[in-house]
Amino acid sequence: AASCGDGFIHEGVETCDDGNDVDTDDCPATCQAAVCGDGFVYEGVEACDDGNDVNTDACLDTCEAASCGDGLVYEGVETCDDGDDVDTDDCPSTCETATCGDGFVHEGVEECDDGNDVDDDECANDCTATSSCFQGKGYLVVASTSLNQARIYEPTNLGLVDTFTGLSGPQSVAPGPDGKLYVGQNGVIRTVDLVSKQTADIGGGLVSGNLYGTTVYENKIYASGSGMPSVKVLNLDGSDAGNVASPSGTNLRSTAFGPAGDFYLSSFGGGPGQHWNPGLAYDGPFGGGGLGSAFGVTTRSTGDVIIASQNNAAYYVFAQDGTFKKSVAVACGGQIRNIAADCADTLYVGCYGANKVVVYDANDSVTGEVAITSPAGVAVLPALP
């Protein structure tokens, strides 16, 4: 009598009969053609087959093994699975429901998430920021002279966040504590409201020439540039707040404050660097290593002072006291303008002639770049308003 396994297909009873008792081929020992859900794993075709249509166990009803990211919650293993790799929603790519302390910032819910249980650092244990630099990064701000724009870039992948128009030959830029950008132009500082995008001019008659340096520190604006014998200090409304006299001529460039309150000034032709102790008590000049044509200046959290040389296509690193440490060649064909450092000591170098901003990490290795025409002003915005 006909029987399953005899190698002959019994019509109306069997759908296959390959004469063997192998359950992992296309005709298992039941003499029914292999299908997903029959309880046999079809080798090379199915990853699993548990014979049920339950999608919350280890084997889905598609005969694929359950995995994080498949959009189905594996009971007892996953607490969520939304099928994407976004780490800022309520189900990050770990397939564990977003919670404070998981190391991912839940957008709209958490201000920060550093993944530790230290409560007195820059991100508290309730995932609220205790510092504007809690992520170690800030938003890159670039002012383009030829585009008459300021642009803001996201800190992680340097994607464009927003563009602000209405500028006129911007030379420098600095974020203020009031949700505004302060943009140094020719003989005036133009403010840009980051929310409304409205602009206004301040400082007219108090500043002159191209304002190559604009720094905002403790609610004061420090403006410097060509033809100015002193750094002009303004209140945020543009009213006069005094001067910082420069002992190095009138061809001034940029300014920066160090983490301890030290003040630094670069000058293109006569310096190249000047140092004031905290409280604006003048200390003296510094330089070395062949630095000339000094332009942008910034500081790192270590206290190191970084000065860019426009014509040498390099930046120079000095200790807080002005001792020369090293120089770093920048691949931008000369014409370096302003530079800025973020809270992770990442350095952004404006390559004016090469139409890009080159990004260096804290060890002075290149990590990326942003293409933008004539980047004269470079700054870091700690957070969006």
Q: What order do the helices and strands come in, and which of them pair?
A:
Elements: E1 139-144, E2 149-153, E3 160-164, E4 172-175, E5 180-184, E6 189-193, E7 199-202, E8 213-217, E9 220-224, E10 230-235, E11 240-245, E12 252-257, E13 263-267, E14 273-277, E15 281-286, E16 294-299, E17 305-309, E18 314-318, E19 324-329, E20 336-341, E21 347-351, E22 356-360, E23 366-371, E24 375-381
Antiparallel strand pairs: 1-2, 1-24, 2-3, 4-5, 5-6, 6-7, 8-9, 9-10, 10-11, 12-13, 13-14, 14-15, 16-17, 17-18, 18-19, 20-21, 21-22, 22-23
Task: Please tell me about this protein's structure.
- This protein is an all-beta fold.
- It has a domain at 139-381: Methylamine Dehydrogenase, Chain H, CATH 2.130.10.
- It contains no helices and 24 strands.
- The chain has strands at residues 139-144, 149-153, 160-164, 172-175, 180-184, 189-193, 199-202, 213-217, 220-224, 230-235, 240-245, 252-257, 263-267, 273-277, 281-286, 294-299, 305-309, 314-318, 324-329, 336-341, 347-351, 356-360, 366-371, 375-381.
- The protein has a 4-stranded antiparallel beta sheet with strand order 3-2-1-24, with no helix packed on it. A 4-stranded antiparallel beta sheet has the order 4-5-6-7, with no helix packed on it.
- A hairpin with a 5-residue loop joins strand 9 and strand 10 (230-235).
- It is elongated, with a radius of gyration of 31 Å.
- The mean pLDDT is 92.
